[in-house]
Amino acid sequence: MGELRTSDLRIVREQLGREPTTPFTVVARCPDGHPLVIRNRPLDANGEPFPTLFWLTCRDAVRAVARLESQGWIGRFNERVEVDEEFSRALEQTHREYAVERARDLPESEGWGGVGGTRTGVKCLHAHYANHIAGGNDPVGAWVAQRVEPIHDERAGRVAAVDQGTNSIRLIVAEPRDRGEFQELARDMIITRLGQGVDETGRIEPGALERTARVLARYARRARALRAERIRVAATSAVRDADNREEFERAVRDLTGSDLEVITGEQEAALSFLGATVGLEAPSPFLVLDIGGGSTEFVLGNEEPIASVSTQMGSVRLTERFVRHDPPAPEELRQLELAVDGFLEEIEGEVPVGDARTLVAVAGTATTVQAISLGLDRYDPEQIHRTWLSRGEAERALLDLARMTTPERTALPVMAPGRGDVIVAGAAILVAVMRRFGFDRALVSETDILDGLAIEMLTGR
Q1: Predicted confidence (pLDDT) per residue in 16-42, tens digit
Q2: Residue 320 half-sphere exposure, CB side, CA atoms within 13 Å?
Q3: What is the distance between the alpha carbons of residues 37 and 27, in angstroms, rounded to a whole number?
Q4: Helix 73-83 to helix 85-103 angle, to the nearest 10 degrees?
Q5: What local confidence, expressed as pLDDT, does residue 236 receive?
Q6: What is the separation of C-alpha 284 from the centre of its chain, rounded to a whole number of angstroms?
Q7: Element holding 361 (H helix, E strand)
Q8: Is the pLDDT of residue 296 over 80?
Q9: For residues 316 and 339, what is the distance between their CA atoms, to the nearest angstrom?
Q10: How do the domains of the chain map onto residue ranges?
Q11: Are strands 305-311 and 35-40 parallel, antiparallel or unpaired?
Q12: What's the confidence (pLDDT) of residue 278?
């Protein structure tokens, strides 16, 4: 799930010179932050098929690629398809992969063709270049990149970080700026549920590994297409707990060329604190709350962490343990609440939570609950980041979510695909923390462990 900020709507409208005809998210940005490539939904605003999944929007990039098209390269590539069997096979595979990627949003769209809506040959260099930037294994797009880049001035030292959680896999690609700051070139999140069943079996399931590795491969290609010099992959709770984690380690090494970092709960807490509090102007000490799928981290600190703890309390783990009905039965919710209270009682003995003046809530549970509280008609990080969520609003959101079925929660416009079945457990953790530790409100942050990973890479911290 790429980003879509309020400012992106205005900029893309200016880039296209018209109103976009289909909903979209941003999958890659130029060095000044404006959209470079967007991901379109398979259906336009009128419900008609829109086969071009990845669209090049940056005007400078569009002009650069147009020059190649004016030189007749589309025709030359189509001639090559007829005589170069190896190239023809590679292009055919590109079209298949593109169709499968589109079908992730709408299964029936897989039959609408490949890059730019065609099944064979080359129809549009812009579409192939956009596919390459988005992480497609596209020989034509890679060829275009070699001839048009760099399109804008770039700074050396670009990095990519991947946060592999129990529920989701996330990517950030960043270019360094002055004073340890960075410009985001890509940010993405896809829920693959790598940790599905790990709490019960202690092992990563083959299907979970396969779907996660498929996303990781695309992330690695996108990072390289955006000229990242290093790719860092860090895994948290589910991989820490899995007896067969070497299978995922091998996949990471093969796909990214980097060794997997299986970080401890304490490292996870420190990275979350770094990402959540950088540049934060609010009363300290801060208590950073990072609700994950397999674990939840608590870290107290000012400029640096003072105390932290990682607990085996996460939205996926608790859902798998306690929830059997949809919506959850009252007794299941009581069992869930008792379990969370038990964890929080232990935390009080390890972290002086009473010293905190500001609760900072990070990660998908908190940001989704805030999006619901704000009544957003789509998920917008610009409207969510560093806004206050009252305890009353959090309680109301939990009550509403607990009354819904998973399909009803999934249909909420701010709900990420794959989060609807575990959001109740996550919201229950958030509400319980606010109640037990006496916080009337929480500062919700879009920056978290993923940003912490990137900051460490860029600053050597």
Answers
A1: 999 999 999 999 999 999 999 999 999
A2: 18
A3: 6
A4: 110
A5: 85
A6: 28
A7: strand 358-362
A8: yes
A9: 14
A10: 6-148, 159-262, 277-451
A11: unpaired
A12: 87
> For the domain 277-451, what is the CATH code?
3.30.420.150
Which is nearest to 181 in space by CA: 97, 278, 102?
278
Mean pLDDT within 95-122? 94
- pLDDT (0 to 100) of residue 189: 93
Comparing 159-262 with 277-451, is the CATH topology the same? yes
Residue 67 CB partners (closer than 8 Å, separation 6+): none
Q: Measure the CA–CA gap between 38 and 384, rounded to whole angstroms.
A: 21
Residue at token pair 């948290």 = 236
Q: Which residue has the tokens 């700074």?
A: 155
Would you state the structure tokens that stand for residue 346, as one six-digit string?
A: 């232990």
For residue 54, report the phi and psi dihedrals to the nearest 5 degrees.
Answer: -110, 130
Measured in residues, the chain has a length of: 461
At 58, phi and psi to the nearest 5?
-60, 125
Q: Is the pLDDT of residue 460 over 80?
A: no
- Mean pLDDT, the chain, rounded, equals 94
pLDDT digits (tens, 9 = 90+) for 169-224: 999 999 999 876 899 999 999 989 998 888 889 999 999 999 999 999 999 999 99
Residue 461's pLDDT is 65
Task: Please identify, in words, the CATH class of the domain defined by 159-262.
Answer: alpha beta
Report residue 141 as tokens: 């797009």
* Residue 426 to residue 112: CA distance in whole angstroms: 37
Query: Around Cβ 236, how many Cβ atoms within 10 Å?
Result: 31
State the DSSP string of 63-84: HHHHHHHHTTHHHHHHHHHHH-
